[in-house]
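$ ./design --mode recover --in tokens.txt
reading tokens...
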């Protein structure tokens, strides 16, 4: 019974991926609330990654902040603790050229994300299915137990910057 439920959930996520990306994409002329979010199988809490800009509209020197939205509720914001920052959701930033920053996740530096302005809005650009994509959401499926959870897979949801086509990738570590 448990396997059947997990399989149904996996199939549902596969078909729902384009809808999830469309739901997080902003309306034309409007910047999204977050650069991207990380959702998890453990509970409804999400980690939001937001860009910070100067009054001029340029990215600030601390270009990205990350924090919890408890139960996904914007009114229930909480900072990441030191362990969450170091091991899972934290990141380092490296200033690039022409107002860009490269974000390296502490949990895995192999998939850097470039933060830059696009049409007046901050965006996170990374790879999804080997293609350049505007990153919108990550979903982490983990197995609880022991001292730390074990990541079973990570799903990447994004969109093609040129066409707006939804992109999806499932990465099994």
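writing sequence...
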């Amino acid at each position: 019974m448990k396997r059947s439920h997990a399989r149904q959930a996996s199939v549902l996520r596969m078909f729902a991926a384009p809808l999830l990306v469309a739901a997080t994409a902003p309306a034309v002329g409007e910047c999204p609330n977050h650069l991207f979010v990380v959702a998890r199988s453990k509970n409804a809490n999400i980690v939001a990654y937001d860009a910070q800009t100067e009054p001029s509209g340029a990215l600030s020197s601390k270009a990205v902040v990350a924090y919890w939205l408890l139960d996904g509720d914007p009114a229930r914001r909480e900072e990441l603790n030191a362990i969450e920052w170091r091991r899972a959701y934290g990141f380092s930033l490296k200033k690039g050229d022409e107002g860009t920053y490269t974000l390296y996740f502490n949990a895995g530096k192999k998939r850097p994300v470039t933060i830059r302005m696009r049409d007046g809005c901050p965006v996170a650009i990374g790879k999804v299915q080997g293609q350049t994509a505007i990153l919108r959401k990550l979903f982490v499926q983990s197995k609880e137990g022991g001292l730390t959870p074990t990541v079973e897979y990570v799903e990447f949801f994004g969109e093609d910057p040129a066409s707006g086509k939804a992109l999806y990738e499932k990465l099994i570590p």
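exit 0
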